[in-house]
Amino acid sequence: MSIKSRCRLPGTLLLHQRHTTQLCAMSTSDQQGKGKRVQPQWSPPAGSDVPQLHLYNSLTRAKEPFVPQNGKKVKWYSCGPTVYDASHMGHARSYISFDILRRILSDYFMYDVFYCMNITDIDDKIIKRARQNYLLDQYKEKQPQPAQILQDVLIARVPFQARLLSTTDPDKKQMLQRLDAAITAALQPLQAAMENKAAEEVVQPLAQTLLDTSKDLLSDWLDSQFGSEVKDNSIFSILPTFWEGEYHKDMKALNVLPPDVLTRVSEYVPEIVEFVKKIVSNGYGYESNGSVYFNTAKFDASPQHSYAKLVPEAVGDQKALQEGEGDLSISADRLSEKKSPNDFALWKASKPGEPSWDSPWGKGRPGWHIECSAMAGSILGESMDIHGGGCDLRFPHHDNELAQSEAFFENDYWVRYFLHTGHLTIAGCKMSKSLKNFITIKEALTKNTARQLRLAFLMHSWKDTLDYSPNTMESAIQCEKFLNEFFLNVKDILRAPTDITSQFEKWEAAEVDLNDSFYIKKSAIHKALCDNIDTRTAMEEMRQLVGQCNSYTASKKNAKLRPNRMLMESIAVYLTNILKIFGAIEGSEPIGFPVGGQGQNVELESVVMPYLTVLSEFREEVRKIAKQQKVMELLELCDSVRDDTLPELGVRLEDHEGLATVVKLVDKETLMKEKDEKKKLDGEKQKKKAEAAKKKEEQEMAKLEKMKIPSGKMFLSEKDKYSKFDETGFPTHDAEGKELSKGQAKKLRKLFDAQEKLHNEYLISKNGN
User: Fold this and answer.
1) Engineering a disulfide at 324: which of 77, 93, 165, 396 sits with its beta carbon 3.0 to 4.6 angstroms away?
2) What is the residue-averaged pLDDT of the chain?
C-alpha cells in the first residue's frame, strides 16, 4: 500500500472532522450573538467544614485551636516522676493519659511530636527517704534486743503522737491514726510477754512484728537524731536509681512509649547553676545566706510579666508554697531568708546530711521548680508548644516554672499550651503516696491487664477526675470483651472459603445502611478527637458502630445469609487501627487484639487455624451422624472437646443450630475464666434446682402427713382454740366456752370438708397400693 493510500482517512473519521469543524463554527457564531454558553459555577457543598483540633489550655482555661509554632513539629515537655518509691495508679493517671494524647497527635493527626520528660532524682523527699532507709538499715544491722526495740519505739512515739495531735489535715490525721493504732496493736503483746518474762522464742517474733510495724516511726526518729551525720553523696543516689528502674519497668508493662529525651536533675546541675545565675543577673533573683530565691514581687511588677498565670487566686497560699519548697526547706531560718513569703528557692544552701554541689553561692543543691525550667530550656529552647503534668502541679510548681523561665528568656510565651490531667481517686478518695493511700502499678496489673487499664482511661476524659474502682474496671473489662467478640466474629466471617470474584458480593439495603452508619461514625469519632481529644465520646461511637454491626450480622444469620465480607473487614480494620493509635492494641495483626499474648498474633493464627478448621468440620460431621442415629455418647464426646479440651489450648468453638461452627482463637486465661464462671453458674443452678426439689419433697411430705389425719381429729388437738366438739369432732365452742358464730362455723366447715376429701384420697391411694 502506497504512502498516499495509507494517509487517507476512513469515512467515519472524515465525518467526525466535519462535525468538529461545524461545532467550532457554531461556537464562533455563539460568541457573535447567536447564543451564549453558560459556564458552570462550582461551590463547596454545604456543611463541608472540616473540624480543627482544639485542646483545653490551662493557661486560658478554655479550648483553643491547636497551632504549633513550627508547622507540624510539636515540642512537648512533661513532668516525670520523683523517684523515691513505687509508682502508683495516681502516676499512671498522667503517664497513660499523656501517652494516649501523644499517640493521637502523632499517629492520627500526624504531628511530628518531640517528647521530653524529666526524672526528679534530687529532692527533699528523696533526701529524707534515703537518709531514713540508710539509718534504719544500720539500726537493724546492730540486731537490737527486744527490750531495746520496745524502749526505742516508746521514745520515738512521743514526737509522733505530738505530730498526730497537731495535724489538722483530715486525710493526714486519719493516716497517722491508722499507723498509731497498728503500733498499739503490736506494742501490747510484746509488753505483756516481757512483763510475764516469756521465753525468747515467744518474745523475739513479737519484737520483730513491732519493728516492722513501727519502721516509719523509727525512721523519722532516727533521722531527727542522726540525719545530719549522713555525708556520703552516693547514699542519696542509690534510692532514686533503684526506683527509676522500677518506674521504667512499670511504663513498659503499661505499654507507655518512652520519651524521646529523658533528663535527670543530677545530670543537669551545671546547667541549673547557669540558669539561676542568669535569672539573678536579669534582676529577678537574689542570694540570701547561701541560697538563691526568686523575687515574685519584682517579676510581677514588670510590664511584660505576670506571676501565677495558671492559678492567680492561689498566690499567698502558704500551705501550697511550703509543700512546694519541701519538708527540709521550711524551717524558720529558711523562711526568714526570703524577702517575701511568696518567694521560692532557685538554689538551696545544703545543710548537714544533704547532698551538695559547688556554685557561686557556696555548696548547695537545686530547688524543685528550677530543674524543669533548666532542663526543658536546654532541650526545647525558649518556647515549647505543650507542657504537661498532673492538675496538682499547676500551683506552685508550674506557675513557678513559668515565672523563672520567662525571667530567664525575658519573654512571656515559654509555654503555649498547658495540659493538666485530672486526679485519680480510689472509690471516691484521693490517692496519695504521702498519705499511704495508693495502689502501685504492679499491684494494679495483678488485677487487670494493661489494656484494660488503658481502656478505662480511654472511657473517661483525660482532664477530669477518674475514679479507680471495681465498677470502673468492670466497665473496661466488658468493653474489651465486647470489642474482642466483634473482632473474633469478623475473623470467622473472613475465614469462609471464597474465590477472588465472589468476595465482591451484591450490596442490598442492609449493606448500604451499615456503610452509611460507618461513615457517620467515622466522622463522629474524628469530631470527638478534634474536640480536646475526647476519647470518651470516641469510644462510645465505636461501641455503637460495633452494636450496629452485630445487629446486621445477626439479621443475616437469621436469614441464613452470609454477612458482606469486605464491608465487615473494612469496619474491623478501621476500629483496629483506631485502637492501635490509642495504644490499646500492639502488634501488626490487621484485625483485633493479639492472640496468646505479645509476640503471638498473626503467626499463631495463620499456623493453627487450618488445623482447627479441619477439626471443627470433622466434629460437625460426627455431631450430625450422632444426632441422626441418636448416639448420645458421641455427642457428649463432641461437647467435651468443645468445653474441656480446646479451651485449654485457647480455642473457643461456638455451635449455632443450622449454621457452621464458629472457631475463635482466644487467650487461654480468658477461656479459663469463662469456664470457671460457667461452672459457677451451673453450680448455682444445680443448687437452686436441688433446693427447689427438696422444698417440693418437703411440701409433698407435709401434704402426705396432713392427708393421714382424719377430718374428725384435725381440730381435737387445738384445745387452745376450742373447748367443745360434736360427735364428729367438729368444734362448737371457742376456748372461753362461747359458742362459735355462724360465720366462724362456716369457715371451719370448709376446712373440715376439705380435710375429709383429702383423707379419703389418701385411703384410696393406700388401698390401691
Assistant:
1) 396
2) 88
